[in-house]
Amino acid sequence: QGQLVESGGGVVQPGRSLRLSCAASGFNLNNYAAHWLRQGPGGGLDWVAAIEHDAENEYYADSVKGRFYISRDDSKNTLFLQMNSLRPEDTAVYYCATDPLNDLFEYWGQGALVIVSS
Amino acid sequence: DIQMTQSPSSLPASLGDRVTITCRASQSIDTYLNWYQQKPGKAPKLLIYGAFNLHSGVPSRFSGSGSGSDFTLTISSLQPEDFATYYCQQSYDKPLTFGGGTRVEIK
Predict the structure, then answer these.
(1) pLDDT at residue B24 tops 90
(2) Residue among A102, A103, A106 minimizing CB distance to B46
(3) Using one digit for the tens of pLDDT, what is the confidence trace for B77-92?
(4) In this structure, are strands A10-12 and A112-116 parallel, antiparallel, or unpaired?
């Protein structure tokens, strides 16, 4: 059975960077588009970024555009989120998710907690 | 951006109850509407996609309906494992957006 496992979360100071990874096992991640989402302390779900299955296009929420970058390494069956210039409001649990068709989130990782605080 | 509004935000219910959750989009989204279930400390799980299509492995007591801007998620007979928070999400246009969630709790 397929699985997604996030790593790379932690506590970071404002203005610093962090890179999240999402390793897929049991299936080929390159058959899917993929997304990063987050859930802040208030509990709401927010979409962060998406990448097409062939990495041809990337898409970002306005709140992270120019600071966060999504990428994938199909040789490692892994999705990444490079987060730069982090702000306290980026504090959240970050999830990766697969997308079999048209911007829905079929399978999710367990989440990685990112805390941005001085 | 397309705003998604769920109601109610909290829904006390008993085992065996028929439960209905409503989701309204700020514009027409055809049937590009998906529903997720989330339990505390866990990632959300896809329940329904395309407004009414049951995701693999989801019990048939869950159903979805609607098109345009008004949608509903119905649980025909509430089971113990159904106490959770439910979110709608539009996949019509980016940015992809979610409703605020409906917490189904024990009455």
Answers:
(1) yes
(2) A106
(3) 999 999 999 999 999 9
(4) parallel
Name the residue in chain B with its Cα closest to that of A35.
B96
Annotate A51-112 with DSSP letters as a single string: E-TTSS-EEE-TTTTTTEEEEEETTTTEEEEEE-S--GGG-EEEEEEEESSSS---SB---E
Give how far B96 is from chain A: nearest CA, Å: 6
Q: Distance (Å) from the C-alpha of residue B22 to the closest C-alpha of chain A? A: 17
Nearest CA-CA distance, residue A94 and chain B, Å? 10
Distance CA B57, CA B9 (A): 26
Q: Would the pLDDT of A118 be above 90? A: yes
Question: Cα separation of B52 and B45, whole Å?
Answer: 16
Strand bridging mode A68-73 / A58-60: unpaired
Q: Which of A44, A47, A108 sits opposite B95 (nearest CB)?
A: A47
Q: Report DSSP state, residue B55.
A: P
User: Among A46, A38, A45, which residue's Cα sits nearest to residue A18?
Assistant: A38
Q: Tokens standing for B31?
A: 């049937």
Half-sphere exposure of residue B72, counting CA atoms within 13 Å on the CB side? Answer: 7
B103, closest residue in chain A (CA to CA): A43
Helices (H), B1-107: none
Using pLDDT thresholds of 50, 70 and 90, give the confidence band for residue A101. Answer: confident
